[in-house]
Amino acid sequence: MTTIVLADDHHIVRQGLRALLEVENDLKVVGEAGDGLEAVQNVEALNPKVLVLDLMMPGLNGLDVLKQIKKRSPHTHIVILSMYANEAYVLEALSNGASGYVLKDSSSADLVLAVREAAAGRRYLSPPLSARAIEAYQEKAKAATLDKYETLTAREREVLHLAAEGRTNTEIAGRLGISSRTAETHRSNLLHKLDLHTQADLIRFALRRGIIPMEE
Question: How far is CA 80 from CA 53, 84, 143, 155, in A?
Fold first, then answer.
């Protein structure tokens, strides 16, 4: 039996995913998460074989959830479920340990296959994604300069995400279980590392980096 945790901020999406996965006799959903921080907590608590993870999540975006899970629960395989077919997203997900990348307009059979392939320790990309296209993009990206975001600690990334959502230091502290002063220190440090100076700068950076979604 392959155990699964679902992480998506839309309840109706999680319901649909649970329904289509649990039709399969060998798949069992053991937990759900509505934001990135909850996803990390649930995986640590439930130790599922597979985490099906949306890229755009409140609290902590999917790519940062991925990085934390690979450190904290390395035996959990991760399948990214996303509306974004951009090679940069796919490459970053795969480079940070994702076993699969499935587009949200794929068929249910693609997701089921991705979960089974991930559980077996193999990689899966749903059509029209291809390993050749990702490898070509990777070659182009090798010459790119270091992304300043990569210099942030895991905690600073959590604070950045919550700050970009408009949370105050007090609210961030409560969400992360730290003091307001510590939250303020993390915010100050990340602004310095990213060469940002105002809340507007921080939000623009988060939007450009794909940390928070553009409003429709």
Answer: 5, 10, 26, 22
